């Protein structure tokens, strides 16, 4: 109990001190009318300014741009909006207030646990690294057909763990990984919901036909940092040579077309820093080694992110470049899209990552499709469309988890 009280006090201190850098930052939704307006918005971020962070943007003007803006950057953004006659709305007036609100909810859950009061389900809150690891351990203890595999270790010596869920090692494999970007909390949360359902409700039919390899948290160092210091941190936490900045964007670090094009950066301080070489990062190496070992059995690869509600196919490194199975991937993605919309009234868009969003080389999905030749490989950008973005409240975990369950079922039985 004493240890728990000390841990709780430590967490409270972090909650009070962390994320002060987002005081007065706004989340803004901007409605560009064409390519020139979109380029003007992008130019703000591309100049390397710390005052702007585009959270979501696509090539069309069907959906608005979501952007985080610092207090110092607000006046300049307002001038750009007026110059191009663009409309906008502020979705979150103060990001720190929203971050603190969610932290207080988590703190309340910990207090209830400390005093052994009845608490909400684990799927009603975002879990820490330690809580995710405890859940993974419970799955393996409770179910004899669940094994834990440590794929590798991070720069801070945390394990990258996979759940192997299998009743027949001859069956084809569905691979799911999440949390490659630290701030995208809904992805690991939805993945754990999926695992729970696979092991408790309705999963028996799945396990007659498939094996599952599931990595709930690819980037545990970065994820831990989002709980302790910077809620909106994206990269891992590896040191960078000769730089004062830390971390690599793991989804720019895979070997296929590493460093190609504009959707990646050689600058260590940038959020999309690709690392100092292909597969330079321990987390990337861990995934690559296991995926390569299993490539002949993997029939479906899902790389989970947030946000935007997209079902994305390869390739991300360049427009109009597609794998040989592209048409089949699109057709299957559209089946998933229709089923999610029918069941939950959420609209996902389907297409290649570079055609719908932007060019980004060194992605995991491109490597799996282009090097390992896995027949169906997707990136899924989960909810929402931008109202909360990376700060999606935990009340959405079950909804997004159900969407993931439905998506995997449709994918699996239509391959």
From TrEMBL:
Superkingdom, natural source: Eukaryota
Gene Ontology CC: extracellular space
Cofactor: Zn(2+)
Residues annotated as catalytic: 381 (proton donor/acceptor)
Positions of the Peptidase M14 domain: 125-415
SUPFAM superfamilies: Protease propeptides/inhibitors, Zn-dependent exopeptidases
Annotated signal peptide: 1-20
Cited InterPro entries: CARBOXYPEPT_ZN_1, M14A-like_propep, M14A_act_pep, Peptidase_M14
Entries under Gene3D superfamilies matching the protein: Metallocarboxypeptidase-like, Zn peptidases
Pfam families xrefs: Peptidase_M14, Propep_M14
Methyltransferase keyword on record: no
PANTHER family: FI01817P-RELATED, PROTEASE FAMILY M14 CARBOXYPEPTIDASE A,B
Protein family membership: Belongs to the peptidase M14 family.
Record protein name field: Carboxypeptidase O
Species whose genome carries this gene: Clonorchis sinensis (Chinese liver fluke)
